């Protein structure tokens, strides 16, 4: 088994799928000549040529629309958003066209497209470049929303997303591209909609995804030294959500903290919390508690930024609160 | 620091408690959970464990005296020789009770208006500097009256038979959490709790069969519409038993006591047509024929198939028909007409050992006879000496709109005479 970065795992996933299926093409800003803004598409132009790896103009609405049309014509586009902060330019194409085309065409036109790119805050990029969009994207029927947090999950889920016949939103993170982990040499897929127990525990369930997953695992390490056994659940896919896995864990631990990057109001964590209170009401020994970003714009200033974003210390404090400690 | 312990509420209906006996002496150390005092409630006398660890500084209630729930019971201190001003302590205690924010046992029922919703109340000056920044940071209004427990704790309490009101919650704001329940049911709690966890059974919901619905509807209306009264006789069955044996032998066919009762009843009904009758709103119908319905118990309920013209049938025929109907009933082979036209019903629980019972009239009939078991009893005979006797009790339920007491009694007199002296049926 090889150790590789998330950047390499995503690159492998696309390269393997493009070798397997010639209808797949990749498009985005600087994905070809520059090897991608974050080098995720490194070497793909060289291997697959300029017909399948295409540098787009700075026009997300345009090339996302092109992807929808290409998908209707039988191709399988992968669209890289340099970040999802720019991807919001393409929301009309994604929400009004990609998500609804199958329905509006009476089932004639599936849109097997993947829209991928980093989501959430990186570091000192201020309010317009630090946003987490999963709540908006999961609020659209017709989309699938995937947000993995390890090289293994990124590769297996990106391959599954490329093969899916529905539009899939694939949320990454600039901060995660260099994160390393084991990836099997042989080919594998991870089904969309299946979560994973990243660390088994018995006292409390901590739910986190994407780059917050690593914080959650560190939180569990810190609390283990204090005798608290934290179970870390990674949904991996946010839509459809693996509720069964979450409910089973809550029914075991009876306490939950949801740790997410986004604003707390009407967030994915709020949705998970609602589902837990409804389905696991009698299992709860403490209120479901969430650690989220403060509800204000992310400042450029490093110290202020660190106060706005959720972090490990707030996560540890939330777990202790829920443990009544 | 010295603190006041109060009379606890140990049952839902308790309003005051009496000190039966103190279990600790003045100056003695007591641990939380250790028995402190025996308290007499409206239900029972129980040991009350100390909710706190400390030293007993002063008992405020003498044994044999009752005080209201929440009234001072004891002064508990943190050291043996702690000095305290009793008057000052009690004054402070009284003040704490009248303070609006304080939630004590005594004020629990008063349910003060939630502070968060009280718009007329001005905020205290000290908290005015708290910034109100959160956009979605609302908090639920305080409700000091209710017992706070987590959903899991409530579920566990129900399963283990633990009474939440007797527990002190260890969660925030006194919330009872799962740990408090497991402590209570294993006996580690600071408050009294059941000695042993009770395993609760599962309720089973049985859907209603058509038969069950019919039984419910008919019997409810029978009991509501027909004013029932009951007449009881105990019968010497010695002669009837002999007769039964003899006839069974000579016919080569088993005759039961019930067959004999059907036979005798039919003939008695001929003598008393008012009992073989029905209420028909604007008139009473005295039926020209005697058709006896017999109650047959089935797994799914109860049916009353009818043997027709029993006044004209011999014992052998009655025996045969009743067996056949009972068999058909058990095999669910009864036809609609088998149920119809009964003029009088006999229900016999004697085979199940019932000595006597009262039955609900089978409408539109005017009476039903409930037959008990035959048992040996010591009876004084005419000469005043004891003899063993086979006796059976029958109770007739009558619809008073049709049958008056004397009419029913006359009928029973005839029936009893037929069963005690079967030869009279030949007359």
Give a brief outline of the structure.
By secondary structure, chain A is an alpha/beta fold.
What does this molecule look like?
Chain A is an alpha/beta fold. Chain A folds into 2 domains: 2-183, 3-Layer(aba) Sandwich (Rossmann fold); 196-319, 3-Layer(aba) Sandwich (Rossmann fold). In chain A, 37% of the residues lie in helices and 19% in strands. Chain A contains 13 helices and 14 strands. Chain A has helices spanning 6-20, 44-48, 60-72, 84-87, 91-98, 101-104, 134-137, 151-163, 212-224, 243-253, 268-279, 302-308, 312-322, and strands spanning 2-5, 24-28, 53-55, 76-80, 114-118, 144-146, 168-172, 180-183, 196-199, 204-207, 230-234, 237-239, 256-263, 289-293. In chain A, helix 1 packs parallel to helix 8 and helix 3 (60-72) packs parallel to helix 5 (91-98). The radius of gyration of chain A is 19 Å and the shape is globular. Chain B has 427 residues and is of the alpha+beta class. Chain B folds into 3 domains: 1-107, Beta Barrel (OB fold (Dihydrolipoamide Acetyltransferase, E2P)); 150-202, Dihydrolipoamide Transferase (Irregular), CATH 4.10.320; 210-426, Chloramphenicol acetyltransferase-like domain (Chloramphenicol Acetyltransferase, 2-Layer Sandwich). Chain B is built from 9 helices and 18 strands. Chain B has helices at 86-98, 151-160, 178-185, 210-225, 238-251, 257-271, 315-330, 336-339, 405-420; strands at residues 3-6, 16-22, 29-30, 35-40, 45-49, 54-59, 66-68, 72-77, 228-236, 277-279, 284-286, 292-294, 296-298, 301-303, 306-307, 344-348, 367-380, 386-399. In chain B, the strands form 5 sheets. Chain B has a 6-stranded mixed sheet with strand order 9-18-17-16-12-15, covered by helices on one side. Chain B has a 4-stranded antiparallel sheet with strand order 1-8-6-3, with helices on one face. In chain B, strand 4 (35-40) and strand 5 form a beta hairpin. Chain B is elongated. The model of chain B is unreliable at 101-137 and 189-193 (pLDDT under 50). At the A-B interface, loops of A face helix 2 of B.
């Amino acid at each position: 088994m090889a150790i590789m970065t998330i950047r390499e795992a995503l690159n492998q996933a696309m390269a393997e799928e493009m070798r397997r299926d010639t209808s797949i093409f990749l498009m985005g800003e600087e994905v070809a000549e520059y090897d991608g803004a974050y080098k995720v598409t490194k070497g793909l132009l060289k291997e697959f040529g300029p017909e399948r790896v295409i540098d787009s103009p700075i026009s997300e609405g345009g090339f996302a629309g092109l992807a929808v049309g290409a998908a209707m014509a039988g191709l399988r586009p992968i669209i890289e958003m340099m970040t999802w902060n720019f991807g919001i330019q393409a929301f009309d194409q994604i929400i009004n066209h990609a998500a609804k085309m199958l329905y509006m065409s009476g089932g004639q036109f599936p849109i097997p497209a993947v829209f991928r790119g980093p989501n959430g805050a990186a570091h000192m990029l201020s309010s317009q470049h630090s946003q987490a969009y999963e709540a908006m994207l999961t609020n659209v029927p017709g989309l699938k929303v995937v947000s993995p947090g390890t090289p293994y999950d990124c590769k297996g889920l990106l391959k599954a997303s490329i093969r899916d016949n529905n539009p899939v939103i694939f949320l990454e993170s600039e901060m995660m591209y260099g994160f390393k982990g084991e990836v099997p040499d042989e080919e594998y897929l991870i089904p969309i909609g299946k979560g994973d127990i990243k660390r088994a525990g018995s006292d409390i369930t901590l739910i986190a995804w994407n780059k917050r997953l690593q914080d959650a695992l560190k939180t569990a390490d810190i609390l283990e030294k204090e005798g608290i056994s934290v179970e870390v659940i990674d949904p991996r896919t946010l839509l459809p959500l693996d509720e069964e896995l979450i409910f089973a864990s809550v029914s075991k631990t009876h306490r939950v903290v949801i740790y997410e990057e986004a604003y707390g109001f009407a967030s994915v964590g709020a949705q998970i919390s609602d589902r837990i209170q409804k389905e696991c009401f009698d299992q709860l020994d403490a209120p479901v508690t969430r650690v989220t970003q403060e509800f204000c714009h992310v400042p450029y200033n490093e110290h202020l930024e660190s106060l706005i974003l959720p972090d490990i210390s707030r996560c540890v404090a939330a777990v202790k609160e829920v443990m009544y400690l | 620091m010295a603190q006041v312990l109060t009379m606890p509420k140990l049952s839902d209906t308790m309003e005051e408690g009496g000190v039966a006996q103190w279990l600790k002496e003045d100056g003695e150390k007591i641990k939380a959970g250790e028995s402190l005092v025996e308290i007499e409630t409206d239900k029972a006398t129980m040991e009350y464990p100390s909710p706190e660890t400390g030293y007993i500084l002063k008992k405020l209630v003498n044994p044999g005296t009752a005080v209201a729930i929440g009234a001072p019971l004891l002064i508990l201190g943190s050291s043996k020789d702690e000095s305290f001003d009793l008057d000052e302590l009690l004054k402070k205690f009284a003040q704490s009770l009248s303070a609006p924010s304080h939630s004590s046992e005594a004020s629990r029922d008063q349910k003060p208006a939630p502070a968060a919703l009280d718009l007329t109340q001005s905020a205290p000056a000290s908290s005015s500097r708290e910034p109100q920044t959160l956009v979605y940071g609302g908090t639920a209004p305080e409700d000091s009256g209710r017992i706070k427990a987590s959903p899991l704790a409530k579920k566990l309490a129900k399963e283990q038979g633990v009474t939440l009101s007797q527990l002190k919650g260890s969660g925030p704001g006194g919330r009872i959490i799962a740990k408090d329940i497991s402590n209570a049911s294993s006996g580690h709690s600071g408050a009294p709790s059941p000695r042993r966890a009770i395993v609760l059974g599962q309720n089973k919901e049985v859907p209603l069969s058509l038969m069950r619905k019919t039984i419910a509807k008919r019997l409810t209306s029978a009991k509501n519409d027909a004013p029932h009264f009951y007449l009881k006789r105990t019968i010497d069955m010695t002669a009837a038993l002999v007769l039964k044996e003899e006839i069974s032998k000579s016919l080569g066919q088993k005759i039961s006591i019930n067959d004999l009762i059907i036979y005798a009843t039919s003939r008695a009904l001929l003598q008393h047509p008012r009992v073989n009758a029905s209420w028909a709103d604007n008139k009473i119908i005295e039926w020209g024929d005697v058709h006896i319905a017999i109650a047959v118990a089935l797994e799914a309920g109860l049916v009353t198939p009818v043997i027709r013209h029993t006044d004209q049938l011999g014992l052998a025929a009655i025996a045969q028909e009743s067996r056949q109907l009972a068999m058909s009933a058990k095999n669910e082979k009864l036809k609609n007409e088998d149920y119809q036209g009964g003029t009088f019903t006999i229900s016999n629980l004697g085979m199940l050992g019932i000595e006597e019972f009262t039955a609900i009239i089978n409408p539109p009939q005017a009476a039903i006879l409930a037959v008990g078991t035959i048992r040996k009893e010591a009876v004084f005979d005419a000469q005043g000496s004891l003899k063993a006797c086979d006796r059976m009790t029958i109770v007739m339920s009558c619809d008073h709109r049709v049958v008056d007491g004397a009419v029913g009694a006359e009928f029973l007199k005839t029936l009893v005479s037929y069963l005690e002296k079967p030869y009279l049926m030949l007359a």
